[in-house]
Fold this sequence. Notes:
The strands form 4 sheets. An 8-stranded mixed β-barrel has the order 13-14-16-17-18-19-20-21, surrounded by 6 helices. A 5-stranded antiparallel beta sheet has the order 2-1-5-4-3. It has a 5-stranded mixed beta sheet with strand order 7-8-6-11-12, sandwiched between helices. By secondary structure, the protein is an alpha/beta fold.
Amino acid sequence: MVDGAIIEGLNRLRSETLEAVATGESLLAVAELVCRHAEQLAPHAVCSILTVDTKGLIHPLAAPSLPAEYSAALDGIPVGPSTGSCGTAAYRGEPVEVTDIATDPLWAPYRDLALAHGLRACWSSPIRSRSGRVTGTFAFYYRTPRGPSDAERQVVETAVHLCAIAIEHAETQDRIERLAYNDTLTGLPNRACFHERVEADLAAGRSINLFFLDIDDFKSINDSFGHQTGDRLLEAAARRLEAAQPPCVFLARLGSDEFGVVLPAADPDPDGERFADKLLAAFAPPFLLEHGPISAGVSIGIARSRFDGDDQQRLGSRADLALQAAKKAGRHTFRVFEPEMEAFLQARRDLTEDLRRAISGDQFHLVYQPLVSLDTGALTGFEALLRWRHPGRGMIPPGEFIPLAEETGLIGMLGDWVLTEACREASGWPPGISVSVNLSPVQLRKPGFALDVIRTLGRFEMPPGKLKLEVTETALLADERMSRETLTTLKQLGIEISLDDFGTGYSSLNHLRLMPLDRIKIDQSFIADLDGDNGAAAIVAAVLSLARDLDLETVAEGIETQTQRDWLRAHGCDGGQGYLFGRPEDAATARRLIGVRNASATRRRRA
């Protein structure tokens, strides 16, 4: 029979416990509240609440009346069939009543520990989550051998229910916090947690080195082997980074393949360069994944708070600049921020804005370089080349603004303008003189690009055979399937396709086999070395032979001497381009050259 005082006390226990959970009190505070109320309602009992982790280990949560050394001795004990009352109750998933610890075999391994602290009996009940998992135990210890009374059973029933609510609420809050501050794939702290750590270190005046790390060529690995392999690579990379770091380092995944590190600036490695070398070495062995070994390096940028600013945003920006410098230096290396990097970035920003204005401000123009037949010397066409005359800086080299246009996404608009202007000019040329236009990866990936080309040709009433489009292997690699489909459509319309700069980059023979090509353009770097480099001559000869077997026309770029022309013609090269035949000139000069060549051809026919 439970009297009214117990019922009133249980109601107060429920009310205060639920209020504590609702107002965000810590799990420890809630558990101690339950223990204190339970011991008031059961004055002969000593209360203990343990948690059970996912590995089956028990941990003391609250036991305000038990000696601290007793509770500490229980920490980390695995649940099992003979682990006292609590460990056994958690193992069985049911209450365990031991009325005499001195004689009960369940307590054999821990009997001396309990008796030394005056504990003679223990009744423990499992605490379960809503899913049924045992998350803890609630126990009453007694100073004399005995079992629980009816009133005590009522107290324990209520307390176990409240503990289940409190523990599950705390676990839910922990999961929410982990999602907010931890990366779900690698288990590392995430960007938000990283930023808080950096802000705290800087606010406390601690000198730190901020590292930004990127896995080299991660996108190509992801594209080649799939996102699942990419995820496994990120997990393995995180483990290697963890293994390489000393205890003082804070490591986080910032997103995609980017990681961040906070390293205290201290002797004997004040700038973090030794640690950077250690990280690079960690990425030297291949990663053994399901597709086999995959090699992946890492690029690292470092900014130092004592030199580069104590503001998180500025420090992060400078670490990122150092990272970009490491990538440009060839990857799998590190760079420490230098002020020149910031000046370079500002110059790029200014140039980007100038580039945007130039597209709409009539600052671009085309020049045309002659293409000739090496056999007859006849003019066969021109390659259209883009030039930018900046109003303040004068002529800006294509090698400076073309990569910038590609990075900023302006290359698509620029490429469309080049195609339109080249066709506008070439539409007035006589039959037999073609124009070659370079395509960017963005244009090849653009849905409906082939239709755009058809519209442009129709606009200027220009035959498709008069247009030749040049692509690099880099452009083909961006999306091989779409590139092949687009080029096949264009070729079926009568437009010829050239593979530009062959011999550099990937030089995949598979592209020669699968892509709808008409010709190969041999890169000028090989032509320049023809006279004194037997290796270059052998490569060019092999390419010419391969092209003949594949029924592909060949054009050599960068011909500057008669000796080079004679060698190429003797080895069967079809066409040539270079200063020997003419430099890139404006449209008016190109038209005059066409007129001169036509007049010469007419005189030869009459003679």
